[in-house]
């Protein structure tokens, strides 16, 4: 695989870096996270109309740009650097891959253009408990008339309080099944949850005898388990890119502060002990970036219409590796940033605590590093046996 950016990809990176530095500075992030919606609607419209980011990996026939997962990862890394508060991750990294993988032609033609132009936001709702993967799917459904009835409580739904479309996983007699459900369907109650990371809103959804028509079904009844696993693996690859950006910014903030902070008549950045710790942070960032973009390259083959199936088969291991490595790198860099900022590192006025909270929250999202490492070990032992 070629890990160097093309000229077009480098242009996307530079454009995203410059734009987000202007619109998602510390003041903008703090204003958004204090709002109930969790993002600035005007900024979201700029992302959709001026930058056309939600459309980046949606095929052209559905109103998208037709680019790949690597380009998506480039955007996510820059968003992670600036802690961008928006429904981009839930829409582009959770709902869109689910529709691309499981939706019929009619469903794609109906939903994807709305996601591409930003007129609709969406998310994935699947977990009813604190378990990971398919074990977390406990909401139930049953056939009724020409449609289905869904019951259950879904927790930790990213942007679930504001999304217009819900990709819902429920369990029936035949197994796990996916549905595309409009958020205003009667019987759905949504509640915003208080969370450690205020820059990413989570919600709890309650489905009380929610009736959906047959055309809400994604794929075949009972065959959604494998699709959901693949969507979650793609989400891990996307989150890993975002975490890499957060780790990089934690390092950058630390380097800038240590160059300004004076002690004993000179900048603390000149002290050997500080240099060693900064070098360790840089190593964490570079290892995380390698894992994240390897997973992005694999994910690109999964979503591509004529992708390399041999490479695509590596997604479970690549996503688990990226999620575990990038989660730990981000948390370590965020924690070191607070320590190397000294006393002010713990204060509300400085930004390291925002990255620390995002690092801790995203570490648990879609499975802790230990859970992913166990999956890697199980898979490798199975191959050896």
Tell me about the largest β-sheet.
4 strands, mixed
Broad shape: globular
Poorly predicted ranges? none
Q: Number of DSSP helices? A: 12
Regarding quaternary structure, what we see is single chain
Helical fraction:
40-55%
Q: Mean pLDDT across all residues, rounded?
A: 95
Structural key phrases:
385 residues, alpha+beta, four-stranded mixed sheet, four-stranded antiparallel sheet, 12 helices, 10 strands, 53% helix, globular
What does this structure look like?
The chain has 385 residues and is α+β, with helices and mostly antiparallel strands. It has 12 helices and 10 strands. It is 53% helix and 15% strand. A 4-stranded mixed beta sheet has the order 1-4-5-8, covered by helices on one side. Strand 2 and strand 3 form a beta hairpin. The longest helix is centred in the middle third of the chain and has 37 residues.
Quick rundown:
Helix content is 53%, strand content 15%. The chain has 385 residues and is α+β, with helices and mostly antiparallel strands. The chain has a 4-stranded mixed beta sheet, with helices on one face. The protein has a 4-stranded antiparallel beta sheet with strand order 2-3-7-6, with no helix packed on it.
